[in-house]
Amino acid sequence: MSEPSTDFYALDDLLEPEEIEIRDRVRAFCATEVTPHINEYWDRAEFPFEIVPKLAGLGIVGGTIEGYGCPGMSAVSAGLVAAELARADGSVGTFNGVHSFLAMQSIALLGDEEQRERWLPAMARLETIGAFGLTEPQHGSDAVGLETSARRDGDSYVLNGQKKWIGNGSIADHVIIWARGEDGAVGGYVVDKGTPGYEATVMTGKTALRAVWQAEITLTDVRVPAENKLANCHSFKDVSQVLDRTRYTVAWRALGLATAVYELALAHAMQRVQFGQPIAGFQLVQDKLARMLAEITSMQLMCWRLSRLADAGRMTAAMASLAKMNHAAKARAIVADARDILGGDGILIEHHVARHHADMEAVFTFEGTDSVQALIVGREITGLSAISGRKPS
Q: Which of 181, 240, 298, 325 is deepest in the core (most CB within 10 A)?
């Protein structure tokens, strides 16, 4: 009997050869360099630093960015990369997502040519690491209300404020801090490692994404050279551009995680014997597996179409939000079913499902909660903002 496939509708037929090659390259890398080792790091809540130079050698860092040593891949390829990394481990996927998409895309979209040339080539080689400092202790879903301030002082800007949940924030060489200027407009300020007044503390006690470090950041009179202010960021709408351009990859990450646990649950069900037969032969288990595969197949097709629209410049913010909302909820349910199929083994990290089960809770929340994504889609449908109570301008 042939190996069961999660490509139930032959989606590979819709992919370009280079997209399949990139996916398979990342999958092979994860099979040897990530999956066999990641449980130990996750259990100890340690970041696997030795993976960083190996990731650099894959040629995937920078995603869709063209030039500056970046691969300039299609949105579909970038999505496949996000899915494969998440299929192996959510923490490694988050590290790359923060660096390649949030940090590097901010510079690519909102920096000027000099800034792109200054920062992106070394970041593409992972010689320097980036972070994206938006969320604050009092401003999560309402990030637009951020209170971190930037005051011009001669040839510098002086930053004061706090940030929270900043992936890579304690290890990054360049942290993009989003702050409100004296005119009230939000700008992006690149804080280089070692700048006085920048203090990052690794957050502990997490029950998800334990192998990637998020930081609480305090900025006390942090002086940033004027040339480190992103030249083409003039308001929070510009920040939203970055979030809109990267959110679709979170849908792919949810798909990758869902695929991983389905495969693990199927393998377990085929070899686990109870009442004299493999549990895969029982009706209740088959019903779960069939429904899990149905959701994964619909997620695959939705991700593919959304990324094709992104490549054509037709993806909207609401389209990305619809995918993130749908996929995060569906993946969360698939993970729960997988954990149930594994029984007691489902809570042991050695079987991997427990790690994915915990990590999915973070994916469900970050880059826009389920409720906020629904309200973005609802605003698109009705023309009415349930968040502000006003019609959008």
A: 325
Partner residues linked to 151 by β-bridges = 158
> Is pLDDT of 388 > 80?
no
- Report yes or no: 146 and 134 within 8 Å, Cβ to Cβ: yes
Query: Rounded to an integer, what distance in angstroms lies between the CA atom of residue 192 and that of residue 122?
Result: 14
| Ranges 131-145, 206-220, 331-345: which has the least confidence | 131-145
CB 153 within 8 A of CB 169: no
Confidence band, pLDDT 50/70/90 cuts, at residue 3: low
- In the predicted model, what is the mean pLDDT of residues 376-388? 90
Residue 102 has pLDDT above 90, yes or no: yes
- Residue-level pLDDT at 391: 63
CA neighbor of 126 nearest in space, from 173, 192, 85, 72: 173
Residue 393: predicted pLDDT: 57
What is the per-residue pLDDT across 299-314, written as a single tens digit (0 to 9) for each?
Answer: 999 999 999 999 999 9
Mean pLDDT across the chain, nearest whole number?
Answer: 95
